[in-house]
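Sample intake sheet
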Amino acid sequence: MSLKNATVVVLGGSSGIGLATAQAAQAEGAEVIVTGRDEARLKAARASLGPAARTVKLDAGDEAGTRDLFAGLAKVDHVFITAGTLVKDPRLAPDRATLNPALDVRFWGAAYAAKYAAPKMPAGGSIVFMSGTAAVRPILGAAVATASCAAVEAFARALAVDLAPIRVNVIQPGFVDTPLLDGLLGNRKADVLASVAAKLPAKRIGRSEEVAEAVLFLMKNGYVTGVTLTIDGGGLLV
C-alpha cells in the first residue's frame, strides 16, 4: 500500500517520533497534518516540513478541538497519535486532579482521535496509537501513566474489531532519544542513556526515525490489525 496522496494526521507531531513520522509520510507523497500544544515546536515543525504541510495547535486531550479538526477534513486515510504525559504518583499520593492528565492525554486523546477520525476514513484506513514498554514493565512511582499504556493497547484490540475494516494498531517504543527525555532527565540524560544502552541487546538507544519506519509499516500493510509492535532494542528481553 502506498501513502502517495494519502491524508495522514499526526497528533503530537511537532517533535520527536511524531515529527519523524510526519516527515517519513511526506517523503512518500502523503499530505500531512500535524498537531501539537507548543507553538514554538509547531513553528519549527512547519519549517521542517515546508509549506505543503499543515500544522494545528491542539491539546490531544481536548475533545472539542479534536472533533473540529477532523470535521474540517474531507477525508482521512491514516492517523497516528503520540501524545502521552508522565505523572509521578508514588504510592498514589497525588489527588485525582493531578493524576487525570496521565489518562486524559494518552487514553482519552486516543479515544477522541478514533471517534472523530473513523467516520472520515475509507475501508483499509488505519489508526496507530502509541503506548510504551511500561505496559509490560511498569514505571516505578507512575502507576497511572503505566496503566494508560496498557489501556491503549487493550483499546486498540477492541477497536480493531469494532471499527473493521479500518485497521487499529499500537506502536510500543522503548528508550528512544527524543525531546521528551530532555525534559525528564535534564543534565543526567547522557549518563542515563549510556547506562541503558549498555544493557540493551542492540547496545544503543533508538532513534525517532526507526520508530517512524515501524509506524509507516502499520499504516501501509493492509493485513495488519489489532497488534502491538514493540520497538525497544530488545529491552523487554533483559
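Comment: DSSP finds eight helices and seven strands in the chain. Residues 7-178+207-231 form a domain with the Rossmann fold fold (CATH 3.40.50.720).
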